Structures are given as structure tokens and as C-alpha cells.
């Protein structure tokens, strides 16, 4: 039988070559120079623009970009089409496409006052392109918040130990922010003390698991769970589809995300992400090390070999239990964030660019951070391989427990009992999701600030109302306190509707399309910067992602929805309404992408034909 170690080795080899070789070339190509003043120093305000130590910012960035998608995606894709196609897309696509995407997005934002990709594209193709991209990004953010909050609720229900551990490390993060920025405590001793506290929180969670209502997961039946509200929670909105405990956690998670996004970055976001990054590094790095140790020493309680239920290649159409989907283009959209993610461009050009201390830090944080997410995807694929996934039709409900179960098996190679390893890996997943959720809400506010209009370095409370309807709506939309309420409110409505399939399909399609548009933005920026700049590093991945996403959304709209669900399936009522909405959104995304690609192509063609030594003037379109 094939050993799991081959998955790990393949990824480590290609990622090492990419970072040691390709990223160095890109750093020279992008002319990163520490003599240039970064936006964090130029606009330092103690609120959004805060120069940060490289390890602190790497922890924040990695925690923010790594969510549940690089776990669920590889597991689902590996089960449907086999582990070899999934591995190849992660191992090859990440260093050549995803890491380039993140690195260029971060570097481009540095040269544009820490502004978003929407602002950058607007500089060159006009306000029309800027607003289209910003609105697209804002709507994508709402989908991200909805999907991630739902997944956290599912994990909290299955692993109530994680609730306690999460509360502990959030409290520690608040204390660490005060210790570091207000008391000016020494960095290294503080790191040791507070990181130890985070891991102590894992033990506390195992001893004192918490739930709002009675958890419905089978594994919790014999546990002594502390139920705060009692009963089943059947009255909670969404309980019919999700279960009372899961449905009850979702508004709590969204309220947390809204509050966290409104606080200054030093209060919670930076210290929490930095502390939780050690948890994440331990989970990803520990699993990789355990696979190596377990293979060499055969020390795992179960053989680290690929389970017989996971095929190397299940054929172009996948396995029948999943519904027979074509490998091209759906494999790439399904894996999504493990290889390339448009959401990362919002993080890179949203929060990270506003905190970068030196330009050269962008190589490790941008390119290296995305490689770290690829390692998470490889770990997820390895957990699938070890634990097996006999029923891919189970979707997310089967995928998420699989990560914890398989991770627990892998960690036995390091002497950890599976009863500890499985909850620990569940906490790793939640840590990724929580940090990504409130970062997403903060980014959504940044998007709206640029749509409505707000000078760099300034923020709005959202409470200065008056001056007419348009002024009031603009103030509410961009406000630090009001914008998160709007985002989370819309996301919550989508979640409690019970249309998970619609949410996941829209999230995947929108996210991958946003990646293509971010690469388009980088290509346009480089073309306008200097006629000597080659455009292949960003242009080729952009073209590939446009083709993949348009074909994938086309399949979803025309075949899966119109033909299979409506014509053949005879959908009616709520299902028909959801299918129509999903189809219209998919077609809207396709049209928006093609329109922006046309604008970008026209700009690049004009620049390359008439270049006279300086940057062309921005368009007024």
C-alpha cells in the first residue's frame, strides 16, 4: 500500500524550490527596497496602520488567510477524484500561482499607500473598474463570513472542548496586547508565557467542554459537557437544518467577529493572531513531522498508509456517490484556497500592507505565507488518506470530522493519544476559521470605505449621521461600528436559510474569480510601471484562473442548475427559488469577470503600444 509520506515529500520539494528560487527572482523583479517608507510608517495611527515585527505580522497574516477551505477542499476533492490529482494541483499550482498571487497583491498595495486591489485597478482602468471590483470583493466577504461562521458552529457542536480553549486564547490575546503595546513588556519572555497559556487552554478545554445547548454530535454522548442554556435549542433560527447547538453558536461567532473587527488592531487582532499562530504551526508542523517520524520509525498506532477507500485516480468524472462531476474544471474550484485564493488578495492588500515594517518582509509574509497554507492543504489531504472517506456524498458534515480524526491518528506517531490529538486538530481548524472571520469583516469595511470614499489613514465611526439620505447611508456603510453589523446581518440571514450548498458554491466560485481579478490587477500595475516588466508571472496564472472559473460557474449555472435541477429534477418551491438565485449570481460573476478582463486588456494594450518612458495617466472611464 502507498504510504502517506509521498504526499508530504512531493509538497516539500516543490515548495522549497519555489521559495528558494522563484520568490527570490520575484523579489528582485518587484524591486523591494527597505529604503522605501512603507504605508505602516507613513500613515501610522495606532488604529489600522501599525508597523509590526515580522514574526508577529507573519502570524497574523497566516492565521487570517488560512481558513476552513484549504481543509475541506482537498479532503472533498481527494475523495471524489483521487489523491493524485489533488496533490498535483497543490504541489505545482501553489508556488507558481497562489504564492505569486499573494506576493504581488501585497507588493502592489505597498506601492499604492496600502490600498486594496480595487483601488489599484481603478488607478489604471478607471473608476468603473474599481467600483466593480470593490463591490465584487465586498459581496465575496459576506459569503466568507457566512461560510466560516457556519463551519465554526459545526465544529463547536462536534468538539465542545474547542469552545473552552478558544475562549482561553482570546482572553490571553487581549492581555497580551496590553502587555506588549501598553506596558511595553519584553517580547520573547511574553511570547513564552502567553503561548504556554494557549496550550494550557487546550488541556482546560478537554477537561471542561462547553456547549450552549445539548450537542448533537455522536462523539459527545458520553462526555461531561457543560451546557450553558439547557435543552435542545429547537427554537433557535436555523435549528431545523443545523441543530440547536450549531445554530446558536453562529450569531455568537458573528457578534465576536463584528466586535473584533472594530477594535484597534493592537487590542486583539495582532496579538491573537500571533499567539494562535503557534497553535497553527504546531498543528501543521506537528502533523508533517508525525508523518515523517511515523513512516521512518513505524511509531503510529495505525499504519500511515493511504486507506483503500481513497483511490489514486477515480476517473475524470469522479465517484458516483459524489454525483459524477468533471475533474476539469471543478477539481480546481473545489480545492480552491489550498492552491490559490482571491480572499488572500484582500488580506494582503487590506490589513497586512498597512502593517508591514519593511518592504523586504513581503517575500516571507506574502509568498511564504501562501506556501504555509499549501502545507495545511497537504496535511488535510493526508488526514483523508489515513482516516479514509468512504462516503464523499456526505459533504462538509463528513469532511470536517475527518480532519480531526485523521489528524489524531497521525499525531499518535509523536506519542499523543488519539483522544487528545483529535480535539487538538479540531482546535487548529477553529483557530484558522475564527481569525479569518473577523479579518474578513474588517476587510469588508475597508472595501466600503473605498467605495464610499475615505482618505488614507482615516476611519469613520458610522455614528455621525445627518446631511441627507445618501450621506447617512454612506456613513453607515463605511462606519467602524455600523459596517460590521450590516455585513454580519446579511451573512446571518444567508446561513439560517439552510442553503449550505448554495453558499459553498457561490463562495468557491466568487473566491476563485476574485483570485483571477487580483492577478489581472497585478498584471495591469506591472504593465503601467515599466515597459521592461515581463507579464508572464501574473498574466499566465490570471488567464488560467479566468478559464477555470468561467467554465466552472458555467457548468454550475447551465448544467447543474438549469438542466439537472430544474429541467430534469423538476425543482419547485424553496429549491427552485434558491436555484434561480444561484444561477443568476453565477452568471453575474461571469459577466463581471469578463468585463474587467476586457478593461484590463485594453489598458495593457494601450500602454505597451504607446509607452514613452512614463506611467500613463489613469483612465476616466
Automatic annotation (TrEMBL):
One of its GO terms (cellular component) is plasma membrane. Pfam families: CstA (PF02554). The keyword Protease does not apply. The chain crosses the membrane at residues 6-22, 71-92, 133-155, 162-181, 187-213, 225-242, 248-269, 278-297, 323-343, 364-389, 409-435, 485-507, 513-530, 542-562, 574-597. This is Carbon starvation protein CstA. Residues 4-383, 399-550 form the CstA N-terminal domain. The keyword S-adenosyl-L-methionine does not apply. It is a multi-pass membrane protein. Keywords: Cell membrane, Membrane, Transmembrane, Transmembrane helix. The lineage of its organism: Archaea, Methanobacteriati, Methanobacteriota, Stenosarchaea group, Halobacteria. It is found in: Cell membrane. GO terms for biological process: cellular response to starvation. It comes from Haloarcula japonica (strain ATCC 49778 / DSM 6131 / JCM 7785 / NBRC 101032 / NCIMB 13157 / TR-1). Its main location: membrane.
